[in-house]
Amino acid sequence: MKNILNFIKSQKLLVVFIVIFLASSFTTKYFFSFTNIINLLTQVSTYGIVAIGMTFIVITGEFDISVGSVMALSGVVVVSLINSYGLAVAMLALIAIGFIVGLINSLLVIKVKINSFIATLGGMIFYRGIAFLITKDGTPVLPKVEYYNKISTGTLFNIPFLVYIFFIIVIISEFILKKTTFGRNIYSTGCNYEVAKFAGVNVVFYKTAAFIICSTGAALAGLLMSSRLNTAAPIAADDAALSALSAVVLGGTSLSGGTGNALKTLVGLMILGLIVNALNMVGISSYIQLAIKGTLLILFVSIERYFQNRAQAVSS
Amino acid sequence: MAKLDNLLTPRGDTMCDYLLKIQNITKKFPGVVALDDVSLYIKKGEIFGIVGENGAGKSTLMKILYGVYKNDSGQIFLDGKELKNLTPLIAQKMGMSIIFQEFNLLSTLSISENIFVNRLSFKNRIFVNWNVLNKRAEELLESIGYTMDVKRLVSSLSVAEKQMVEIAKALSFNAKLILMDEPSATLTNKELDKLFKVIETLKKQKITIIYISHKLDEIFQICDTTAIFRDGKVVDTKKTSLFTKNEIIQKMVGRTVENEYPARTKINFDEEVLRVNNLAIKNKINDISFSLKKGEILGIVGLVGSGRTELVRAIFGADKKISGDIFINGIKRSIKSPQDAINLKIALLTEDRRGQGLFINYSIEKNISSTIIKKISKRMFINTKLETIIAKKAISDLKIKCTSEKQTMLNLSGGNQQKVVLAKWLVSEPDIFIMDEPTRGIDVGAKYEIYVLMNSLTEKGKSIIFISSEIQEVLAISDRIIVLYGGKINGEFQREEIENDKIMKHAIGQ
Ligand SMILES: Nc1ncnc2c1ncn2[C@@H]1O[C@H](COP(=O)(O)OP(=O)(O)OP(=O)(O)O)[C@@H](O)[C@H]1O
Ligand SMILES: [Mg+2]
Fold this sequence. Notes:
The complex is a heterodimer. By secondary structure, chain A is mainly alpha-helical. Helices cover 77% and strands 1% of the residues of chain A. Chain A has a single domain (33-306), classed as ABC transporter involved in vitamin B12 uptake, BtuC. Chain A has helices at residues 2-10, 12-27, 34-59, 67-85, 87-111, 116-134, 148-153, 161-179, 181-191, 193-198, 203-229, 240-250, 262-281, 286-315; strands spanning 155-156, 159-160. In chain A, strand 1 and strand 2 form a beta hairpin. In chain A, helix 3 (34-59) runs antiparallel to helix 11 (203-229) and helix 12 (240-250) packs across helix 13. The radius of gyration of chain A is 20 Å and the shape is globular. Among the domains of chain B are: 18-87 and 209-254, P-loop containing nucleotide triphosphate hydrolases (Rossmann fold, 3-Layer(aba) Sandwich), CATH 3.40.50; 272-345 and 430-507, P-loop containing nucleotide triphosphate hydrolases (Rossmann fold, 3-Layer(aba) Sandwich), CATH 3.40.50.300. Chain B has 18 helices and 22 strands. Chain B is globular and about 70 Å long. The N and C termini of chain B lie far apart (62 Å). Chain A binds chain B through residues 179-182, 184-185, 188, 191-192, 194-202, 258-259, 313, 315-316, and chain B through 29-30, 69-70, 316, 318, 337-339, 341-343, 348, 350, 355-362, 366, 370-371, 373-374, 377, 380-382, 384, 410-411, 424. Bound molecules: adenosine-5'-triphosphate (ATP) and magnesium ion.
């Protein structure tokens, strides 16, 4: 009994997840259908990739709200290039976008010492502007090649590639963060910048790397999203940054840096995804959904914070 | 009731004289009993000393008195009134103030804002009268012998300066009971003298002070009564003058310490491992040149603000130099970052534990391995087993008191945190080990062991630069001493020339 209580205490979110999962199954008899579960996973996957990238940058104690614009930009650029030059050039462009955006963000934050919220807010406006420029009057670009749509929607054992790609990214990220020197140095940089610097960690490198990982993740998500929808719109993904940050925070990664991991973000994502899924099933309008999502986010984080404070008061 | 109280008090006085009665306080943390049935009776206007090993429970008691922690059992009476459900705010209102062992300052605010935090406007006025506030802050700091621009941000201060601000803050409350948890840990004799004068004045005003320190001379100098803590229990309390130093040490650590400092055998130093030529740092250091030999302990002495910390930070590549060359083993090197320095096998144990020394939210283990993370990794992957083994060894070598190597730093006592800082640099096996206040907050017994360790390092051919505000230890341990004054070298002394008075004279610029 005590063990069960302890488990609930230490894995509150997982428990919340399971409760919501079971509750959702009562909303409709279709919930447990294979199609619905796959649907759910497909829905969370694109923003999921963004959220995993965001996890890296949040661990270093910064954040990046330009990810949505980067997704849109990357989608538009990749589709345009694929139409005229083929996949290889498009992929190169994708990597270049991720790299350059990450580099600019980190330069602004580390060298010019602008707060990362402001620095990436600027980027958020700027990159979306470019995406509109490329498409001339804002009309979405359509891929002319057959296979493009298959990148996301092609299936293996009836599961879309997109879902595989997402889970591979989660696993690799978790591995990097937990097991490698690179991961440890990312944590150290966020845990205490000065201490890390004095211990010989190349803090500038790791912060820059985290920014690049985050924007490259967004660029890749941009490709996958445009592939899934078979269109690249410059207005796409305007809520990506906030959704990704919600998932990260809900998963328990603190915005002050030094804690968190990819699995936590996955749990955060799934909870948000489940809620949307359940609300859709019972037919609640998307505006009301927004309000409910916002409320639940604040509620979960407050409860988590309350338990944390109490744990600290008891143990310290 | 009065009779019962009489039985309870170990000193046989009548209870009404006591300002503070602490009765049967017990406090447990997961895996440790920090305080075990502690009772203390403290008179009004008394300076009450508390000594004890690292992790004996001193700070825990202070935090309970100030309402930061809740005691599991026991009672506290202030002026005869029982204190229940204490919080720091209530403690303040009841007339208490505290100097925490770990600084509690807001680094993005100014000195005066920090001193008067949450009391910025007086007499229920809405607007802050900055002139009055700054003036009062200046006066407070002057009273402890320190003149500084109170509009400066706390983040720009050295550790000793931060300590001064903490002291000024504690004084600003006009409290009747002041709890001082190692206020002297980074102060040099000059500042300490001032602090003691202030304490004497407070005593005349019948203000009661609890004074915690690992420097026993201080205890004998100012404390009327002293309590000795050991493993969470009070092992003895009596008038300080009835104790001898040896008795205190014996009761604290459970054995006698014959000498305070181990003997240092004189070796001939010839091989030069470090040479600094004409080093200058903007506004701090002016044209400093010196060398360090293999196997040598070079002491650097100087008052707060003399540039000792700035000097070693620059050598370590943490601060920008204006000019100057550094030679390691005869080869000119450009050290632009701590990373460069570490690659050249230089270590800098910084004076600011929280600022640059420890990942306070990490475990002990991760802190210790932070300097050798590359070494314990194979092709990018951290060998976590090796990490644990190294941490366990360091914990037992340095006798770090903890529940396991996975415990977070936040839960360690101050002195044990300091030992972890030492450990993390020791495992990096540096050739040149720069130690800025290595014994800060460390108890008498453990200090001796650190000196022994320094000796054995030099016997293995390592070299040490040793900085400490506690001049006696620098004098006792160093082979050679350079004295800094106003960012310049103002005297150099070989071991046989070392004399306290002579060195102090140079340190104050004569
Ligand atoms: N918040 C906490 N959680 C768990 N254990 C704690 C916590 N605070 C203190 N302890 C433990 O309680 C014991 C007493 O610690 P305390 O800080 O009171 O020691 P101290 O006498 O002040 O030592 P020092 O001289 O090193 O400052 C130590 O073993 C410490 O690890
Ligand atoms: Mg303490």
